[in-house]
Amino acid sequence: MKTYVAVLLVVGASCSGCVVGNDPPSDVDDVDDVDATTLDVVDAYRGLSQINSHAYVSDLGPFDINCYVAGDVAKYQQIHPEQSGSGIRVAVGTVIVREVLDAQGAVEKLTVMAKGPPGFDPSLGDWWFGVTDPQGRPLEDDAGALLGRLTQCHGCHDARAQDDYLFGVPSIDI
Predict the structure, then answer these.
(1) Strand ranges (E), 14-156
(2) Domain CATH number, residue 44
């Protein structure tokens, strides 16, 4: 039995369903380890690098965002929603946590992305997605916990393939 291991840059945890190198198995489908590892990072997200200098308005709705990143911070800071085609690719293990703020500036929920190992989700650059409450507990919909290969995230992120499927932070807010 082969064991594939990915060392996530952020937490140094191993993942039995993950891979390293250029030869991923076609069955990288055990997201439980990636879920747990990423949620550990989310627990301490306020200790990550905050990318924006002040909360900024999201392009997805009438709410403000604060953005925290662990891992490939320097590359992430080169990606901006007002420009596309950067060609930037962040490293496996990079985790992005966005605070979604309500009208009073309180954290309403967290949206999370983590760069998974090659083969994790090739349809969207191997990104893992999650939506949690402010304490990092996964939110749920009719299909279950909002964690993993969330196809509902593809609609917006597909258009950003040349930016590793990321929007980044507006350049004026860094």
Answers:
(1) 49-50, 56-57, 64-70, 95-101, 107-115, 127-132, 140-141, 144-145, 147-148
(2) 3.50.70
b/e per residue 132-149 (b: at least 16 CB within 10 A): beeebebeeeeeeebbbb
pTM, entire model: 0.81
CA–CA gap between residue 162 and residue 174 (Å, rounded): 21
Kindly state whether residue 6 falls inside one of the protein's structural domains. Answer: no
The range of the structural domain enclosing residue 148 comes to 32-173
d(CA 69, CA 118): 20
pLDDT score recorded for residue 34: 77
Residue 7 lies in a domain: no
Question: What is the per-residue pLDDT across 120-158, written as a single tens digit (0 to 9) for each?
Answer: 899 999 999 999 999 999 999 988 899 988 888 888 899
Q: Output the CA torsion sign for 5, 42, 156, 91.
A: negative
The 3-state DSSP class for residue 82 equals coil
Task: Please report whether residue 20 resides in a domain.
Answer: no
* Residue 128 belongs to a domain: yes
Phi/psi at 72 (5° precision) = -85, 65
What is the number of domains present in the chain? Answer: 1
Q: How do the residues of the chain divide into helix, strand and coil, expressed in percent and rounded to 5?
A: 20, 25, 55
